[in-house]
Amino acid sequence: MCKIFIVDDDIFFGEMLKYHLQLNPDYEVLLFNNAKDCLSNLYLNPDIICIDFGLPDIQGDELFIQIKNIYPDLPIIVISGQENIEVAINFLKLGAKDYIVKNDHTKELLWNSIMRLKENISLKQEVEDLKDELEKKYTFEKTIIGQSHPIKSIFSKINKALTSNINVSITGETGTGKEVVAKAIHYNSSRKNKPFIAVNMAAIPKELVESEFFGHEKGAFTGATERASGKFEQANGGTIFLDEIAELDLNIQSKLLRALQEREITRVGGKQKIELNVRIITATHKNLAQEVKKGNFREDLYYRIIGLPIELPPLRERDQDVLILAKHFIDLFAKENKSKPLSLSSDARKKLLDYHFPGNVRELKSVVDLACVMCDHHEITAEDINFYNLEKDTESFLNEQKTLKQYTTDIILHFLKKNNNDVIKTAKLLDIGKSTIYNLINNLEIENN
């Protein structure tokens, strides 16, 4: 929506301009009959102001200067009954975007002038947004939020990764920010002006991986109606991020190894060799060394991609970073939704610090976004914070400090409730004797209601 101010003491003429401009549903037009009302409403942040030269309270050029003193970059169009060339030149020298004489063609001239200005405003905003995005990418200490010792250790390793083109392997639980780290490395490296291509191994059917990686020629297989470049070719000169690398099929692993060793690829169905100059960053939530021992991952490929290993800490090991990240996500939510700024109450902070966050940073963001929506006042309370407890998932369950006997009791109780307290069915499901359950009930360790 483009907000336009019209300042004109001729009520009929001003209403005519307002009506004409509001034929465009993207325009919000506010009409003022004097300069004082215009100045007192500048807090509404207009995108464009159209001022009449002859106003009853303040002369047009004086109003122009007062607006420019407050908002130097605000576009102003001057509409005047005077055809005085010197007056027009003076306004243009002061920075007016256009000078339009009042006549039968005024509304069409104003429409065209605003259209041009709106295009320039949109282009300028796109440039500013791009600059902001690039600045975010180039300053990894602003995109990877935290001050804990574990996260400072990550900063140190990222800095080491920037001194060379060594491959990087990132490990960590789901939701810890592996792709964020990969982008931080790329956009702070000498390859930052070249492509960053992310590929999620788990999302590609194994029969299509080779074509996704290396591309294909027209007619290489059914459905290949034209030549297509692969992810490696698209990333040439830059970085390719292979997420969930442990999910890669063994057959494709051998082809990937060959491509990395020979530093060249061939499209599926083709013969032309394409030289590779690409940095490899991989990520997985699995232990790749263990996958090698199990025979699920090639040992030679493991040593080829391991490079500089970076292990991301889970959020529960990052101390006060939880609150720093929460504040960051609250501010981000307010900015993206143009809503009121919020703070965290002491009970909300304690609730966040006491939770183990099995979903890590990704889960925290979801929790904070929901809390911002639920909050009715200026402060988020503990009642606004709701965790996505997936019926005591395995990871959170094992994080609790209990004895084996207590864990056993909890498991039996869970399945008893699930089976409507049917002891025989529960015993069969857990492959334990009925007497084990009855003994627990008799010892009052389980209440069989």
Task: Report on the architecture of this protein.
This protein is α/β, with parallel strands linked by helices. The protein folds into four domains: 130 residues, Response regulator (Rossmann fold), CATH 3.40.50; 170 residues, P-loop containing nucleotide triphosphate hydrolases (Rossmann fold, 3-Layer(aba) Sandwich), CATH 3.40.50; 70 residues, Helicase, Ruva Protein, domain 3 (Orthogonal Bundle), CATH 1.10.8; 42 residues. Helix content is 47%, strand content 13%. It is built from 20 helices and 14 strands. A five-stranded parallel β-sheet has the order 2-1-3-4-5, with helices on both faces. Strands 7-8-11-6-12 form a five-stranded parallel β-sheet. A two-stranded antiparallel sheet has the order 9-10. Strand 1, helix 1 and strand 2 form a beta-alpha-beta unit. Helix 14 packs across helix 16 and helix 19 packs across helix 20. The protein is extended. The two termini are 62 Å apart.
